[in-house]
Batch of 2 targets.
Target 1
Amino acid sequence: MEILLVLGCPLLGAMLLAVVGAKRYAAEVSVAISLATLLAAAALVLRIIHGGSMTALHEEFFIDPFNVFLVALTALVGFTTSVFSRPYMRIEAEHGRLTPGRLRLYHSMYQLFMAAMLLALTTNNMGFLWVSMEMATLSTVLLVSLYRTRASVEAAWKYFILCGVGIALALFGTALLYAAAESVLGGEGMNALLWTHLNAVKGQLEPRVMGLAFVFLLVGYGTKVGLAPLHNWLPDAHAEGPTPVSAVLSGLLLNVALYAVIRCKILADGALHSTLPGHMLMSFGLLSTVLASFFLWRQRDIKRLFAYSSIEHMGIITFAFGMGGPIANFAALLHMTMHSLTKSAIFFAAGHATQLSGTQRMDKIRGLLAIHPSVGWGLMLGGLAILGMPPFGVFTSEYLVLITAMRDHPWATPILLGALAVAFAAIFSRLQPMVFGDTDDRPLPHTPALVPVFIHLGIVLMMGVYIPPALAEWYRLAARLIAG
Amino acid sequence: MSAAAYAWQLGECVLAIALAPLFAGWVGQCRAWLQNRSAPPLWQPYRVLRKLFHKDVALATHASWLFRSAPYVVFATMVVAAAIIPSVTTDLPLARVADAIALVGVFATGRVFMSLAAMDVGTAFGSMGARREMMIGFLTEPALLMVLFSAFMAFGSTALPRVVEAVLRQPHIMLHPSLFFAAVAFVMVLLAENARLPVDNPTTHLELTMIHESMTLEYSGRHLALIEWAAWLKLFNYACIGFTLFMPWGVAVHGAGPGLLVLAIGALIAKLVVAGAALALLESITAKLRLFRAPEFLTMAFLLAVLGLLVHLLLEV
Amino acid sequence: MAHLNLATQFVQMLAGALLLISFAMLAERRSRRLLILLVWQGAVLVASTLLVASTAHLTHLFYSAALTLVLKVCVLPWILFRLMRKLGIERDNEPLVNLPTLMLVGLGLVIFAFGLAQPVSALATTVLRDTLGIALAVILLSFLMILARRKAFTQVIGFLSLENGLFFAATSTTYGMPMVVELGMALDLLVAVFIFGIFFFHIREQFDSLDLDQLESLKED
């Protein structure tokens, strides 16, 4: 029941907002819908905590500790982003960058995007997982080009084509998966694509076919995760879309795509009886981390900078999942949470910073602390958090990843450390002049919504200092599930 | 080998020589209809031949024996080719001597003589035409060989009569995807080899684009008649190769009686009617390629044929 | 080879036709003819699906053949034809550099695809198992087309041809995906084409042409 609520709220909201999205109160409606979704997600979490994993509606949906935690995270960030976008989009409209029609498109598509991601997370059917990932792409592509500038249209086109092609590979992988499953589970009916059934027989799946299927699924969904070398769309889409869209793309969509990869990896692990899937994840992850940290140096655009930082962190998470084992998985899950909260907070702050100075070029953004201290502090603290400074939670998870790497794969540790150091220097050197220094920019016409920024950073800080035992237990459970 | 076989061998040659101008006339007529022109009569090519044979030969002062003998050689090669291709019957004594690879060689011989003769007099157009002809030939020959190879792989023999017999024995062999590729490539080769659109236009005398026409500029009288006749025979031969490889139905096999042989002639004429109309249609809907695009066109043909071979190796074995 | 029955041979021939059409698309310069080729590809797909459906007696494949017929042979081409007319790009001629190289790369991809499909083909139980290599080749050739072409319209055709290849792959390995999933995929495809349509207008509005060569301000130098 809760599942239907979780999926139904954003879906109905999308329809409602398609009608009333141009009205003045649309942003409030959007916030209310997101809140309802969050509450439904909370109810779902409670149910799982008490009842354990479950399937629903003819086993079409499957909830276990792994995905329910992502559902909760998605609903939370979805809610805070809608809170943030209320003043943000109003300021954009007043700057004349948006018309009421486009605001309607924005609100409606935003909810549809949430629905697509939640469906991807909760569905048990690998085919529907694909369909909903594609739906998530389709619903955001028009959001990326919302401003209809040359750059945004170009970014959206790139995003569309590259992700479309990538996801086509994933479909081929899904077809292969189905082929492998059919010979074990029998062709009739839909069971052969249900993850729970696949998971039950994963040891019997034909290894060669599964290996091939996993390669296609990894490359396909990996494109959406932003793994190098198929990451080209990501910085463009993040930089050219409206900031709330950048925040959810970076904070949520990448997670959902990675979730899809991990689900496939669990099956491939079982079928292949080898470390091949893990090693593939590790190499993709490491490559992305290193590549992104060097690209960070060349960025002039603030949102592009943090987009590359997202690639870097997704690389770290992928690497951690690749190492496998309870601790690495625990670290990866923790890092997923920390990254999504921190990165969306940073995008919120960066969005307001660009509105203050009227440009996304970092050499033109100066003296945030002087003109609007809370934006300045938000950006500074967020930056420090994402760079892995203690006492923020990102430090905890990165530390865990590093010590696991040191124990299991010592060769990878210096590479990771080097990449982290390069990224640290690159981001910090850009952040410092933006926050401090002098400026003659004027304050914003509306009070910016910085509550979400500090809520996110507060949670990240808390997790760095103290992880509540219930939460830790939950992560441990999810980590064990992934380790199989 | 019975005397009847030799008689039919001879008969087939005569038939080819007699039918070739008619086929060319039919294609011309179809083209005219498709282009809304009033069509020349079907026997127009025979009239041309008669006219040319009645005219005197005018020879350039510097023309050597090569120039004078080339028309006969070219005509002879085409007749030999016609003798090898089982267009009516598979019971051909000559076909045992030469398989399809030799056939490609026979065509090449004709081409070489034609080009040498064109350069012999030393005019600008002759040399240019010869050069272009050699370029086209250089590209079509591998493509044609590849087409033949992929057909041979499917049918299991390089002798054309065996190919026909194989297909008549198991008709569904024709469903092989590799033959599909080979057929498309073959049509492309046919167009290029016979100076048809889109590589060359047989009906114009536009100096800068022509290939075949520029080689025959210096010829007159019976020499020109023979060369034209050889060109028609070449088209006829190519059509018959196509029939042999891709629709050999109706051809009389070894030991068939006269009734079946007459039927085979009927089938051949029917196929020619259809093929001529299709050729005219194809020529009417395509535009002439610029000359430097021709290599691209022929590379495509070659690659398609290779692809056919590949599909056969990977899929059908 | 001798005991392959007639239906299998027919399907193989249709698969060959699909591959041939893919190559033709790779070499085709004109938007209009490209679209016609796409319609042909869809039609061949429908024919092969119908053939498989009737040989294997699978009702759900009949439905998916009907779905393909409606969507890929009628609706999508119709939308694209209308778009083409509206945008006035029917006679657009796209320069192609180095066609022979492109074709050679395509040839290499075909070999690669066959090699890759080998282990799966050995496992599949359908009458179509040998055609998986061709399906993969069609997919890879569509990739090549998307990469090599610089016009938005052509890239979309490539995208749709990619979908056709995927559909063929699904049919050839497993007699198609479950019906519900296929419906979802069809919906996604339809929406995608609508969005492509919207994009054509955006791109032209911003760049005055559908030439993607102009879309390179966002380069990572």
Target 2
Amino acid sequence: MKKILTAILIIITFFIIYFLQSNFFTWFTISGVMPNLFIIFVLWIGLFIGKKTGLICGLIFGIYIDILIGKQIVISGIMLGLIGLIAEYIDKNFSKDSRLTIMLIISASTIIYETGMYAFQIIKWGVNIEILAFLKILLLETLFNVIISIILYPLITKLGNFAESKFKTKTIMTKYF
Amino acid sequence: MYKNRKTGIIGITITIIILIIVVILSNTNLQEISYIENIFSSIVMPIQNGLTFLKNKIAGNESFFADLETLKEENENLKAQNSKLEQSLRELEIIKSENETLKEYVNLKDKYKNYQTIPAYIINRDISNFSKTIVINVGEKDGIKPNMTVIADKGLVGYVISTTQNTSKVQTIIDPSTSVSSLITSSREEVIVSGTLENSKTLKVEYIDADAVLLENDNLETSGLGGIYPKGIYIGTINKIVNTQNSIDRYAYAETAVDFSKLETVLVITNEQGE
């Protein structure tokens, strides 16, 4: 029952994030650059719920975003799914109890996700390569995501530990074996 | 433990404040200092009012000694009147806003009377920093089909890439993956205009003929080639020319006619040269 409730909460959170991204963060920007809360959300699912849920949620959410606003379907799904998968891998190898670790994971994930998205645009649409403009956006977006993760850190860990206790039976850190 | 928690809360609060300051500063034109004046006046005005009140009292202003009951009654009446006026003001503001939207539609219709158009509102914007698509509130039910051109009061917006029953997705000309075949209005030279990652106002002008005469402040309009955009729709103005060693590679930057950050209403051209 609690698992169903958590699943419903995940869906509700997805929609809250979607409306925040498409309304509030279209004007609450740093030099016109928006954060990407979906990366943080999928990372959270992968890190604390696991069991391939991060991958599946990333895929579903990404495809849904593409259908709603994207130019092409699937790419956001693939990239967010990848982030979910990376989160599960990180969960097995690193401790997520440190604020610094979470910040580094979010930075790395934002860089991987956005670089993948931009590379896809170049390959699929033949977009002009603008390295400096891309790096500027990437840097600001990463910074924005990190700042948000600092603000949300207590909530992330509290809800994460709750979800972990419901979904995961045991956590083994393979690096110690 | 308690100290760590307290430090954490202080840290989060400071981070939130820094974030808000960064966002505000990065989006504000510092030359506009009128709001700073407002802040200063709001600090000074209560003190100024108090001083005036004291001055009046000392000067023996008779109105200060007026009957308290009468003043209370008068105050109640004024409050009621004020709330009525506030309500009327709100209603008038709604009417004014509707009127402005309708005027915008009429202006748009007049400007592009050669085309049959459908007005629409923007209901959603892209959530990615690397693409610039928008969603409008008209769809298949209203006769919208993919590849139809979307314009605004000042010029070209983009084209419809997909539709649902009630909405349509529009790829704007500022999207880096959009290329528009264009003409330089004065010299009639053909060029290709595409979106950039720079900002939501800048376009890149490429494939400029080696012999073409290109000047700053030249206007750009659609050439009609490519099968999507009709001919003669204003795109923007060239504001920077970048000359390279090889004149074939030279390019320019243009500013869009439409301010995409403030764009709210658009028109979808359903057919060229309509009745």
